Amino acid sequence: MIEKYEFDSENDIILIIGDININARNCWYDIDLFKDYKLFKNILPNLTIRDNKFNKYECLIKILEDNDKNTVIDHLYKTYNDHPVTIGESQIVDGIEIPLETVLTNNNDIF
C-alpha cells in the first residue's frame, strides 16, 4: 500500500522494514535475559511489563522511535488491524498440524 505523506523537512527518513524474526503477535521474553544490555536498560522504563516479561515487538518499536524523536507507523497493522503471519506459523486442528503460512516457509521446514 502506498500512502502520501507530507514531511517536515527534506531530512525525513522512511524505513521499509520486514523482519521475519520478530513475531509481533505473542512474543514475550523474560526481562532477566536482557537486563545487562545497555540499550535495553534505556528502553525498559517505556515498555509494558507483564509477569516480569516484555514484548519484543514493542521493544523494537520503542528502539526505532528513539525516545519519541522518530515516528514509527506499522502499516500492516494499520491496514489489517492484525499482524499477518510471516513465516512458519501453524496450528493444531483435530490433532494434525496445519501450516498457516506456506509461501515463505520451505516445505521441509513445516513438519
Uncertain runs are none
User: What do the pLDDT scores average to?
Assistant: 76
The portion of residues assigned to helices is 10-25%
Shape: globular
- How many individual helices? 4
For the largest beta sheet, what order do the strands appear in spatially?
1-3-2
- End-to-end separation in angstroms reads 33 Å
- Cα-based radius of gyration, to the nearest Å: 17 Å
* Largest sheet geometry: 3 strands, antiparallel
SSE string, helices as H and strands as E: EHEEHHEEH
Which structural class should the secondary elements be placed in?
alpha+beta
- Tally the beta strands: 5
How would you portray this structure in words?
This protein has 111 residues and is α+β, with helices and mostly antiparallel strands. Helix content is 23%, strand content 14%. The chain is built from four helices and five strands, in the order βαββααββα. It has helices at residues 38-43, 56-65, 75-80, 107-110; strands at residues 28-30, 49-50, 53-55, 90-93, 96-99. It has a three-stranded antiparallel beta sheet with strand order 1-3-2. A hairpin with a 2-residue loop joins strand 2 and strand 3 (53-55). It is globular, with a radius of gyration of 17 Å. The protein starts with 27 loop residues before the first strand and ends with a helix.
